Amino acid sequence: MKLHGIRVAHKKNTANCAPERLVIPKSVTIPMSMHIGKPANIAVHKGDDVKVGQLIGEADGFVSSNIHASVSGEVRQITERLNAHGQKIPCVVIEADGRQEKYEKLAPPQVTDFESFVKAVKDSGVVGLGGAGFPSFVKLNVYNLPAVEAVVINAAECEPYITSDTRTMLDKGEYVFKGIEAIRRYMGVKRFIIGIENNKKEVIEKMKALAKETEDVEIHVLPSIYPQGGEKVLVYNTVGRIIPKGGLPLDVGVIVINVTTLAFVAEYLETGFPLVEKCLTIDGSAVKTPKNVIAPIGMSIRDLIESAGGLKTEPSKILYGGPMMGISVPSMDEPVLKNTNAVIFMDKKEAAPPKTTACIGCGACAAHCPFRLDPRAIAKAYRLDDGAALKALCVDLCMECGCCSYVCPAHRPLVQTNVLGKGKLKEYLFSQQALQKQETKARQQEQKKKGGADNE
Ligand code: SF4
Ligand code: SF4
Question: What is the pTM of this model?
Answer without folding.
Answer: 0.93
